[in-house]
């Protein structure tokens, strides 16, 4: 690491290399100390620094923190040298320290010098900390928090789920084009050649794939997550007797042309027990319970009627493969009327 430049060290530090960060600060200590000496020797500031109890070493310590804070914001592609970018942050940190202690000195004079502040040095050993220093306990500005890591992992999982939901052609194309298959992205021209497509055709496939991928990420995946959460909440409320639920599962349907004429659904009462079965005829709006979901005929009939009510209101244009319907039973309605 001895031959690395400030810029190279900064990039490594941004990636989480603590040794590179320490070396970066160490390499720039001469500049930091020079800046601190200039401030400390300024005739206009000498008296102010003396009244605050600040010397050049304190300013250098603040400048090191300013340099450290500048690491996360540096952009190598900008073409600027790191020290040129960080120098204003170093000077600003020193001036902030002076302002802070100036305010504190004024406060102490007004309050009989009580509650004085103490300068803490980053390389100073902490008591009862097993030899740790303050520097070792401060999180790096560019280090990822557990929350950020969790969010990134969830995002990556959702992205792979979205790609799995794409048609095979689009899924294979996106994985190859953007490096999900081999870990290396490929230019459009190379991708077109790989799949034996013209570049215009490859662009068309990519637009179609990205459109479907966007829909999966922004609409389909969140909707599926919402449905799962809603189902879990429904089961919890059913378990504690706050409401009733009937699950419907499409078993078969009949069509005349494009129009659905009849459908057979399985239904499950209150998320448990056995599946019952009912048929609904959309031509004349009639229904028939083929198999009871409960030995209690009245109870099973109540759940079947909720399902039939939904099918009657829903119509026959598009039928859901699976759906959970909730409703309040007569006993809950009586409780609500008592509360009124």
Explain what you see.
57% of the residues lie in helices and 13% in strands. The relative contact order is 0.06. A hairpin with a 5-residue loop joins strand 2 and strand 3 (275-281). With 340 residues, it is α+β, with helices and mostly antiparallel strands. Helix 3 crosses helix 5, helix 8 crosses helix 11 and helix 10 packs across helix 11 (199-239). The chain folds into three domains: 6-137, no CATH class; 147-235, Winged helix-like DNA-binding domain superfamily/Winged helix DNA-binding domain (Arc Repressor Mutant, subunit A); 241-339, no CATH class. The protein has a five-stranded antiparallel β-sheet with strand order 4-3-2-1-5.
List the helices and strands and how they pair.
Blueprint: H1 6-14, H2 18-27, H3 29-40, H4 43-52, H5 56-70, H6 82-110, H7 134-137, H8 146-165, H9 168-177, H10 188-194, H11 199-239, E1 244-256, E2 259-269, E3 275-281, E4 286-291, H12 297-314, E5 322-327, H13 330-339
Antiparallel strand pairs: 1-2, 1-5, 2-3, 3-4
Short synopsis of the structure:
This protein is an alpha+beta fold and 340 residues long.
Features:
340 residues; alpha+beta; Arc Repressor Mutant, subunit A; 3 domains; five-stranded antiparallel sheet; 13 helices; elongated; disordered C terminus
Spatial strand order of the main sheet:
4-3-2-1-5
SSE string, helices as H and strands as E: HHHHHHHHHHHEEEEHEH
The class by helix and strand makeup works out as alpha+beta
Give the oligomeric state. single chain
Global mean pLDDT: 79
Number of domains: 3
Straight-line N-to-C gap? 77 Å
Number of helices: 13
* Proportion of strand residues: 5-15%
Number-wise, the strands total 5
Gross morphology: elongated
């Amino acid at each position: 690491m001895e031959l690395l430049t400030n810029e190279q060290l900064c990039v490594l530090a941004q990636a989480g290399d603590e040794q590179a960060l320490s070396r970066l600060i160490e390499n720039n200590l001469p500049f930091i100390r020079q800046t601190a000496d200039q401030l400390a020797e300024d005739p206009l500031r000498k008296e102010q620094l003396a009244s605050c109890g600040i010397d050049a070493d304190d300013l250098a310590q603040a400048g090191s923190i300013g340099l450290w804070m500048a690491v996360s914001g540096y952009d190598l592609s900008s073409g600027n040298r790191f020290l040129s970018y960080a120098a204003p942050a170093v000077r600003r940190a020193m001036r902030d320290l002076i302002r802070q202690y100036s305010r504190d000195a004024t406060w102490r004079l007004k309050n009989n010098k009580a509650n004085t502040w103490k300068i803490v040095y980053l390389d100073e050993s902490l008591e009862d900390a097993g030899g740790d220093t303050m520097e070792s306990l401060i999180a790096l500005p560019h280090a990822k928090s557990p929350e950020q890591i969790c969010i990134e992992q969830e995002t990556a999982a959702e992205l792979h789920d979205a790609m799995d939901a794409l048609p095979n052609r689009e899924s294979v194309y996106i994985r190859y084009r953007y490096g999900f298959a081999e870990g290396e992205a490929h230019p459009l021209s190379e991708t077109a050649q790989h799949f034996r497509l013209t570049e215009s055709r490859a662009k068309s496939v990519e637009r179609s794939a990205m459109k479907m991928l966007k829909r999966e990420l922004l609409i389909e995946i969140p909707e599926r997550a919402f449905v799962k959460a809603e189902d879990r909440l429904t089961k919890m409320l059913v378990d504690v007797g706050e409401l009733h639920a009937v699950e419907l599962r499409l078993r078969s349907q009949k069509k005349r042309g494009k129009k659905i004429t009849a459908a057979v659904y399985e239904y499950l009462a209150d998320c448990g027990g056995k599946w019952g079965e009912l048929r609904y005829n959309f031509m004349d709006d009639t229904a028939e319970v083929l198999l009871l979901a409960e030995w209690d005929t009245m109870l099973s009939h109540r759940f079947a009627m909720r399902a039939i009510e939904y099918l009657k209101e829903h119509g026959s244009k598009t039928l859901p493969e699976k759906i959970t319907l909730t409703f309040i039973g007569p006993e809950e309605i009586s409780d609500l009327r008592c509360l009124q």
